[in-house]
Amino acid sequence: MSDYTDVHALVREAIDDLGRSDRLGSVLEKAIRIAELRRDVYNLWWLRLEAIGYRNERARAQWNLEIADQIPAQMRDSLLMGIVRDSQERREYIAFDETTGERKNAVSTWSVAETDALIDEREAHVATPPPPADSPEAYAFWMATRLEATLALTQWKRVRAR
C-alpha cells in the first residue's frame, strides 16, 4: 500500500471517528500518523504537543529536540511561536477558583487524553444523584459542587471542540 493510499484511508477513518465519538484520543493518533505520512512537520509538531500536553515540560522538550532537525533553524522559533499562540487561543477557558469563588480566564495545559478524562470525571459528578433531603448541609454542598462541575464541564467541552 502506498503512502498516498495510507493517508487517504486514515483521513477517511479519522473523519468517521470524529462523527462517531466526542473523544479525541484515537482521532489525534490518526491525525499524527497522517502528518507523518505527508511529512507535514508543522502539523506533526503541533499534534504531538497536543498529545503530550503543555504541562509535561520534560516530554515537550524531548519532542522539540527530536523534531528540531526537521525544521530549518531560521524558521523554528517563528513556527513554535505560531503554534503556541494558536494553542493559547484554542485552549482558553473560564476557570472557577474554588478558594475565592471567582471566575477568571485561563489556558488549558492538559493533553487531549487528560482533557477527555477531566470531561468524563465532570460528567460523572454532574450525574451523581443528590443526597437525602434530611441533610441540608450535604445537599447544599452537593448543589455548589454540582454547579461548579457543570460550569467546568461546559468550559472543557468548549476547549475540546476547538
Q: What is the element layout, followed by pairings?
A:
Blueprint: H1 3-20, H2 25-38, H3 41-52, H4 57-68, H5 73-90, E1 92-96, E2 103-107, H6 112-127, H7 136-161
Antiparallel strand pairs: 1-2
Helix pairs in contact: 1-2, 2-3, 3-4, 6-7
Summarize the structure.
This protein has two domains: 3-90, no CATH class; 92-161, no CATH class.
Instruction: Characterize the largest beta sheet: strand count, sense, and whether it forms a barrel.
Output: 2 strands, antiparallel
Q: What would you call the structural class?
A: mainly alpha
Helix content: over 70%
What form results from the Cα inertia axes? elongated
> How are the strands of the largest sheet arranged?
1-2
Count of DSSP helices? Answer: 7
- State Rg: 20 Å
Number of domains: 2
The average pLDDT is 81
CA(first)-CA(last) distance: 33 Å
Secondary-structure element pattern, one letter each: HHHHHEEHH
User: Beta-strand level of the residues, as a percent range?
Assistant: 5-15%
> Low-confidence parts, pLDDT < 50 over ≥5 residues?
none
Q: Tell how many strands the DSSP assignment holds.
A: 2
Notes on the protein architecture:
The chain is mostly helical and 162 residues long. It is built from seven helices and two strands, in the order H-H-H-H-H-E-E-H-H. The chain has helices at 3-20, 25-38, 41-52, 57-68, 73-90, 112-127, 136-161, and strands spanning 92-96, 103-107. The longest helix has 26 residues, at 136-161.
List keywords for this structure.
162 residues, two-stranded antiparallel ribbon, 2 strands, 72% helix, 6% strand, mainly alpha
